[in-house]
Specification:
The protein is mostly helical. It has seven helices and two strands. 50% of the residues lie in helices and 5% in strands. The chain is elongated.
Amino acid sequence: MIKPGAVRNKHIGHILSKIEEAGYTIAAIKTTRLTIDQAADFYSVHKDRPFFQELIEFMSSDDVPEEDITRSVFVSFDTDGNGVIDFEEYYKAISSVSSVSREDAKKSFDSADLDKNGLIDYDE
């Protein structure tokens, strides 16, 4: 789980890179916001601690714009940091979370490459 502060501070890409560098394969990525009840259930081990209420409020905070989440995912795909995603970067990211064939990944990539220049930039 990547906490709201890390999302807000645009650290998703860095965190995902560290996980992969440690030898783990990311099988899926899901963005969600916990409700107060979900956070309370998840952190129930801390329910008797003085920081519990603050913790569950923070973990269920929804002040992270979707734009920040989208940008962080884009940055995690853009492994060379040049501001665009080429097919190899795209395929590496997609194949790390699913068993997609190169052919199907290429079809998906091409459909996202709106200007057909062989690269996906953030605005696409």
